[in-house]
Amino acid sequence: MISKKLLISTLFGVIFFSTFGAFANSIDKIFPVPQKVVEGKGTFILERGRILLGPDVKLNLFNNVSELRDLAIEKSGASLSIVSALAEHEAAQISIIIDSKVSLRSQGYKLNISETGVQIVANNEAGAFYAIQTLIQVIRFSEKGKLPYVTIEDWPDFERRGIMVDVSRNKVPTMETLKRTIDRFAEWKINEVQLYIEHTFAYKNHKTVWEEFSPITAEQILELDKYCAERFIDLVPNQNSFGHMKRWLQHDEYVYLSERPGDASSDDWIINNNRSTLCATDNASVEFMNELLGEYLPNFSSKYANIGGDEPYELGTGKSAQACKEKGKPVVYLEYMKKMNNLVNQFGKKTQMWGDIVNKHPELIPMMPKDITCMIWGYRPEHPYNKQCPRFKKEGIPFYVCPGTNGWRSFIGKTDRGLANIINATTNGKKYGAYGVLMTDWGDLGHMQPFTVAFPPYIYGAAMSWSTEKNKDVNIEDILNTHVFLDESEALGKALMTLTNAYKAGGDQELLTPYFNMINRTLEPFEENYITRNYNMSNLQGVCKEIEKAMNILESAKPRSYDGEVAIKEMRTAAKLADFMCRVMIDRSRVKYSDIFNISFSKRKEYAKELEQIIKDFSKTWILRNRIGGLSDTNKFFEDIVKILNTKDTENCSVVPRLRL
Fold first, then answer.
1. Sheet holding 94-98, edge to edge
2. pLDDT tens digits, residue range 11-56?
3. What gap in Å lies between CA 3 and CA 75, rounded to an integer?
4. Across the chain, which distance is largest between two alpha carbons, in Å?
5. pLDDT band at residue 59 under the 50/70/90 scheme
6. Which terminus of the chain has fewer Cβ atoms in its 10 Å neighbourhood, N or C?
């Protein structure tokens, strides 16, 4: 079931799409591309009649069928009604039947349009839902209800096809944003959504941790869970339980739970003065997580729960050091995760956990409980999924492949890097029998990239999760214009792809884009860092040119989607940020020691004024989709740079932007 607001925008789009030549062939516009399509000769014209629901079609599909009917009426002008039985000698215009005995895979369906009408036969309710989504697209892009003869046999390559949204790095979407996003995911045949939580759930006894971050409440989770279920999406709870707990451990009342409650200094730059990991050998950590999970998990109807467990950087450096010395750090890690698994089982759910640590120590895999699902993540295009997947298949442990959008630690994304990562993950996931795919979109270092830059990898990941072979070569620009932005000019998709690939002109850095280094390396000479010392500044000029090119293309965009104008504003603000940082980096390369203070004070003041305006634009754009909490924390990065640029007495400058993990 799609929200009425999204349906209205879709129906509005139908009017011009029906006359838009590029979208004339409705079969070619089905997304994701089905497994099997056989086109016939002729058209079936929707007329006055019935939509017949078979005996096993339950009421939870009724609203979706109603939207199908409304769209059919809008396109054809015919009067259609929904019934569960026909009069004698009456034929249905559209019939929907569920028959698990048909030779289709789970969630599969067969859609046939012929001279006798439209027939859907689905393996189960989910299959019927996806068939309806496909038929909606066929009708949407048809001319006046004239439907081409076609037989479509379709099913997903992966049982579970998910998307994870990071809501813990300052940016928590509004309920409206979440619901409309879920509507889109349902259209793309996504059936799992996770909201990554560290501290942004409103735990009753822990207001100190979340009060400044506009958290998601229990009531909102219950509402979202129901909303997802109506769209055949499983809302899976995701609460980290080991590493990445800095937002908790930075507060005095929680320090006792950390691996290093005392002196947190270290020669290791990753953990120096940083507390982000619970102590694995202290039962207080287990009791603490028992409290959190006991309040959080019951709000979800899903039988799964993702408890994280990735990157416990401080493990073995403090209170657990002796145990790690005696047993080995990998064993201590797995013992703790088994305790977390027991907690999850106690609340009637099955555990999902990230796979980075057990893949670094594959000797742990045979020791894992068989009811745990391992979430194998790796975001480089060449990540060794081909080596990691077989380990879990051999041991009979269910696993997902979890590629990423690669848009984090940037302002404008890194689309091609993300697409290559998706191809690698899904191809190997299918080959080795992955149970699911979970597309991840992280918000590292303040979640500075807007939601729009995630659309290309999101939609490609959805397509590859449905049918890896059939969707590998889809035209993402066309899909964005057709299925996301409803842009008759075809400009918005092209502009977005150009903008999100501008990073390539500056060099494909492993984590940070060149222009993003301006934030965390503002006062560091280029020569002192292995990344910045090798920058080719003419490449950065190329980034600026690509950004300008994207913005010129964007001028022609004519989106009709509900968020088309929001997307344009997000892209423009992100482009300004990336371009600004590039120009400052280029100017730094031209002065002695690449020292920002060797840029003339008058020039720095100009830059400061420009950045202050960008901050205002950034803030206005942020609240178009997201809650206000966390915005000031992210803006602090930019404000620190403004202070540096405005500093005349450089010897006494104490402002040093710091990374917030």
1. 36-45, 146-154, 109-114, 117-122, 94-98, 49-53, 80-83
2. 444 434 443 433 347 899 999 999 999 999 999 999 899 999 999 8
3. 19
4. 92
5. confident
6. C
